[in-house]
Amino acid sequence: MKTFYDCIPCFLRQALDAARLATSDETIHERVLHEALRVAAEMDLRQSPPAMAQQIHRAIREWTGKNDPYLEIKNRFNSMALELYPVMQGWMADSDQPLETAMRLAIAGNVIDLGVKTRLKEGEVRESILNAMSAPLEGDIGEFTSAVRRADEILYLADNAGEIVFDRLLIEQLKPAKVIVAVRGFPIINDATLEDAKEAGIDAVADVMENGSDAPGTILRDCNESFCDCFNRADLVIAKGQGNYETLSEESRDIFFLLKVKCPVVAKHTGCQEGTMLLTRTAI
To answer: Any idea what DSSP says for residue 2?
Structure first.
């Protein structure tokens, strides 16, 4: 998916928000904005939005000296999600369709996207989870279920911290297939890293690997060899979130995307309204 003109103001807002999280020094805020404007001016818009975000956030880390400006917020949402986890396990135990229930909860958790909304409130996450069972879901659940049941090895591309706790519910339903969960190789926005996966207990239910990249999506040419080997080998790839959709939706392999549509650009690209819980598949 290419970068659209409407993405540019969002990048600038995101850059300023991240700079303010990292430091109160307005001189650095100005430098970060100048760098974001330079990157936007020079970027090939045929690249995906996460490719631009990657360059901007590298500049933020360089100028502020903060390797992970979102760390405190990530930890807060991880803790909140872990508090909700026993409640959701109860819902799973009572469900007649546990795979669909887990998928709905995982998609609802995709609201924890600080690239889209830096000042996301915990109440908004709780509301998304509470509405997960009744909210309309766009997509073919039967097709997804059949693909899961046929797969011997599934690669699950995680998205954000906090959200990855909700992913655990779905990952547990993907058995008996071997499940490998991939996280970002370095901190970027609030995307999940190896530390977040361990805090969520993902390593207790699946193998976990880093993709070697600091992009808020999955740019294959930027990922390490072991990840790419797994991506090409897996019987099924499940990709969470907008960033993974933006970077992989045009790949020529079978991928199921699970996301909450949270911006007008992705809404237009998918043909769905903002707020839609979406299950979609690459055209292969």
So the answer is: P
